[in-house]
């Protein structure tokens, strides 16, 4: 690694990512690791210039206060110990906090401000070449920004050793499979295999209501599809994924509870036949986009709003049914179309619809109706760790509502979710 690194050791803080992002904003690379890092693990990290011990409310586990490992104190690296409970509240306090970090990083650790996308890409290309050698790689290409940036990195590193597979699991947005084939196969000339496995996935998900189980079923089934395709392609030994830092952090650490399992973190089967290639796993979402820009990907791809790996499966709440899945797909298409007309495309970070598994009484054609509600969610964020709700104009909400209740079968009510993250997560499941 060309970049100097400041290591953050998690001693129970809930704000590790805040410090990591603050350090990166100063131009220095940072990573979060468990408190009990070993000498071997520490030695394996490149260019570590200093260590921050970050305590917090989860410092006591099962009645025992966790402490940094002996390896930390044997390292002879500069150490800063803090108990960090929240973001600075006032400009003076924020300035003082930033100066404390800056003094530690640059004066005590003598770190260089060399964290940038050009160096990151150079490092990752080198690491991918070293990991993959002359072997073949399989990539799950959803068409979202994460997998697209991974594809660009892999093409830069190993070229035609990469095969991209786009799996239609029946949980994609309206027109999305066709768009992925058009962009990646026809325009980018990628080696793309398209698999329609929608019935297979929906069959596996039938009757499953628990969101964690849904995510794990989808993740495991993805791997099975890839294994089958790999056998057809011969010689595939690596599986590339668009895992990013929030996926790993939200799946839990030794001193913090999981927010939710991510299909590409907690949902992988134990008997995985591939070695994973995850070049973005230490990047936050905004950094992934910056990486895509540096790689020369078009803005339409780089700034496309994020879409979860389980797709509409976590927006069709509870056990998935075909009628509610279709209601999610159609209402989402209307929402995206109206946001585009209103000039909000690219200005709002993420927006989508959710259909819960309950009905409400309404009136349609002068008769009682008993149909599903549609919930609209629109949020803004930088790193997906916190999010604010977009204050939409009421006239736009009325227009979207009118279209959804008149054009989407089985829907008689539209709601707007006003809850930020935290306390809510961005997705409902």
TrEMBL record:
<keyword id="KW-0332">GMP biosynthesis</keyword>
<keyword id="KW-0547">Nucleotide-binding</keyword>
<feature type="binding site">
    <location>
        <begin position="142"/>
        <end position="148"/>
    </location>
    <ligand>
        <name>ATP</name>
    </ligand>
</feature>
<dbReference type="InterPro" id="IPR025777">
    <property type="entry name" value="GMPS_ATP_PPase_dom"/>
</dbReference>
<comment type="pathway">
    <text>Purine metabolism; GMP biosynthesis; GMP from XMP (L-Gln route): step 1/1.</text>
</comment>
<protein>
    <recommendedName>
        <fullName>GMP synthase [glutamine-hydrolyzing] subunit B</fullName>
        <ecNumber>6.3.5.2</ecNumber>
    </recommendedName>
</protein>
<keyword id="KW-0067">ATP-binding</keyword>
<dbReference type="InterPro" id="IPR014729">
    <property type="entry name" value="Rossmann-like_a/b/a_fold"/>
</dbReference>
<dbReference type="Pfam" id="PF00117">
    <property type="entry name" value="GATase"/>
</dbReference>
<keyword id="KW-0658">Purine biosynthesis</keyword>
<comment type="subunit">
    <text>Heterodimer composed of a glutamine amidotransferase subunit (A) and a GMP-binding subunit (B).</text>
</comment>
<comment type="function">
    <text>Catalyzes the synthesis of GMP from XMP.</text>
</comment>
<dbReference type="Pfam" id="PF02540">
    <property type="entry name" value="NAD_synthase"/>
</dbReference>
<feature type="domain" description="GMPS ATP-PPase">
    <location>
        <begin position="115"/>
        <end position="304"/>
    </location>
</feature>
<dbReference type="InterPro" id="IPR029062">
    <property type="entry name" value="Class_I_gatase-like"/>
</dbReference>
<keyword id="KW-0436">Ligase</keyword>
<dbReference type="GO" id="GO:0005829">
    <property type="term" value="C:cytosol"/>
</dbReference>
<dbReference type="Pfam" id="PF00958">
    <property type="entry name" value="GMP_synt_C"/>
</dbReference>
<dbReference type="InterPro" id="IPR022310">
    <property type="entry name" value="NAD/GMP_synthase"/>
</dbReference>
<dbReference type="GO" id="GO:0003921">
    <property type="term" value="F:GMP synthase activity"/>
</dbReference>
<dbReference type="InterPro" id="IPR017926">
    <property type="entry name" value="GATASE"/>
</dbReference>
<keyword id="KW-0315">Glutamine amidotransferase</keyword>
<dbReference type="GO" id="GO:0005524">
    <property type="term" value="F:ATP binding"/>
</dbReference>
<dbReference type="InterPro" id="IPR001674">
    <property type="entry name" value="GMP_synth_C"/>
</dbReference>
